[in-house]
């Protein structure tokens, strides 16, 4: 028994163009949110690294000044 062209295309046989477009839009939005989160995390990481470098410098200056004050001649 041979099937006609109409019989072949009956019923859901895949995704419609609208469904594919909606899936692409949703996927794009998810990627956008992930990109923004990664960008924010990178910015926070860079800011923290700068703060740690500044704290290290202040610690070195504090150590130097404490040594100078401890060995200073009071007279």
TrEMBL record:
Keywords: Membrane, Transmembrane, Transmembrane helix. InterPro entries: N_methyl_site. It comes from the Bacteria. Pfam families: N_methyl (PF07963). The keyword Transmembrane helix applies. The chain crosses the membrane at residues 12-34. NCBIfam families: IV_pilin_GFxxxE. This is Prepilin-type N-terminal cleavage/methylation domain-containing protein.
